[in-house]
Design a protein that fits this description.
It is built from five helices and two strands. By secondary structure, the protein is mainly α. It has one domain. A two-stranded antiparallel sheet has the order 1-2.
């Protein structure tokens, strides 16, 4: 049995279902843009995960499909996917930082937990 390696283009054009990143709960669907082309969900996900800012994300699609290919609604859908994914990532980072902070202070959070000897020395 022969196994063939697919190119990125072959992969995204075969994918007809909504997709999500393995570490995300956000599902992304294909988007049909004003020019009549369909932007596959896998391509949108790839652009989301490789873009650090909203401007990078938008410029990828404008460079790939052209400035006039998108209506405000089309770009709005794409930006909604981007923002939901980024919001989820930011929340995960915040939760991770809070967990690490809780471990550093012995799990006492904001209730204190300072050095007892220093506190007794003030008496």
């Amino acid at each position: 049995m022969k196994t063939y390696i697919k190119t990125f283009e072959q992969f995204i054009f075969e994918n007809d279902n909504s997709v999500k990143a393995p570490d995300s709960k956000v599902f992304i669907d294909d988007v049909t843009i004003n020019s009549g082309e369909t932007v596959k969900a896998a391509e949108i996900l790839g652009a989301i995960t490789s873009s650090e800012t909203e401007e990078e994300f938008k410029s990828y699609f404008f460079e790939t499909y052209g400035q006039n290919a998108f209506t405000v609604e089309d770009m709005g859908k794409l930006l909604t996917y981007f923002n939901k994914y980024q919001e989820e990532k930011n929340q995960e980072e915040t939760d991770k930082e809070e967990k690490e902070k809780g471990q550093e202070d012995g799990g006492l959070g904001d209730i204190g937990g300072g050095d007892a000897e220093v506190d007794l020395g003030k008496l």
